[in-house]
Amino acid sequence: MADDFVLPFAVEALDLRGRVVRLGSSIDSILTGHDYPVVVSDLLGQAVALASLLGSALKFEGRFQVQARTDGAVSMLVVDYEAPDRVRGYAHFDRDLLQAGMTPADALGRGQLGLTIDQGANLSRYQGIVALEGQGLEEAAQQYFRQSEQIPTRVRLATGRVSLAASTNGADVMWRAGGLLAQFMPTSPERQRRVDLHPGDAPEGASIFDQADDESWLEARALVETIEDHELIDPTLSSEALLYRLFHENGVRVFDEEPVRAQCRCSRERILSMLKSFSPQQRAEMLADDGMIGVTCDFCSKRYVIAPDVVETLSSADEGQNV
Fold it and tell me: At a CB cut-off of 8 Å and minimum separation 6, what does 41 contact?
């Protein structure tokens, strides 16, 4: 059984391409490191699964970021996927706004979801923005592909805690997350073309052209929509077995697995570089009662304690080099 992998697949009879992700210890380490309320963990787990599905498709050593800013209980959601295999994420939330029975979509509220491809310092960034109006991450991702890429796409995401008879970390329960991305990609452009936006200002009574979905895509989408959440996080069900359940009648081909691991990019050097960007007065305001500067990484919760004279020495050295 393979955990913490993305598995690309193709159903050639349906002109379907896609990816499945199953996250075990990687998502468990991200979520348990923060001790979020369940609904916040559920939402962040879905976001990590989404970022892994999309970021693992990058053909260069760049970064893919999923970021949401909203007026909901979860006001900020950030996931970084650094190709080829590193992922990290965190959420900011207001505990007073959380309510019993709240779904992840409820906790997300209204705002914006940004999907960003960062190709490095010397290349331009690409960002797609989707309005969050009460829908969940699944529908928001599908809306992104419908508007920005114009590729018929179906996304399924799930997060949950699973009881384990025996686990590597000694816990009886661990977090798991999973997702599936399926896209209709025929070789003929005519079969892929769709009407993606309503004209809006057409005269009353005007006939609006509405192109029907391709039959192959209708079948593929219907099969993907049969996936239950528990199938995406079941530790006894492999990605290959799930794909066989869905597409065995049409024939499904899988490709090499691509690993995913939870690893933060923070370091003492990065923290020092960040502190050097502040003025001496600003750094003085950061001092704790013990006279030290404390910085906690939002992503991994690691605590860094820096002596102010270390930052001052580095800043003075930089100034000397610039003279």
Answer: 31, 34, 159, 175
Question: pTM of the full predicted structure?
Answer: 0.87
CATH superfamily to which 268-322 belongs? HSP33 redox switch-like (3.90.1280.10)
Neighbours of 249 (CB within 10 A): 10
Sign of CA dihedral 227, 54, 257, 25: negative
| Per-residue pLDDT tens listing for the chain (323 residues) | 579 999 999 999 999 999 999 999 999 999 998 889 999 999 999 999 999 999 999 887 789 999 999 999 999 999 999 999 999 999 999 999 999 999 999 999 999 999 999 887 667 788 999 999 999 999 999 999 988 878 899 999 999 999 876 445 556 889 999 999 999 999 866 665 554 445 555 566 655 545 567 899 999 999 999 999 999 999 999 999 999 999 999 999 999 999 999 999 999 999 999 999 999 999 999 999 999 999 999 999 999 999 989 988 876 655 545 43
Beta bridge partners of residue 160, listed in sequence order: 176
Cα separation of 182 and 38, whole Å?
A: 28
User: Structure tokens of 147?
Assistant: 């508007």
From 3.40.50.300, 3.55.30.10, 3.20.20.70, 1.20.1250.20, which CATH number describes the 5-197+212-262 domain? 3.55.30.10
Helices H, strands E: what count in the chain? 11, 14
24 with 33: CB under 8 angstroms? Answer: no
Distance CA(217)–CA(233), nearest Å, equals: 25
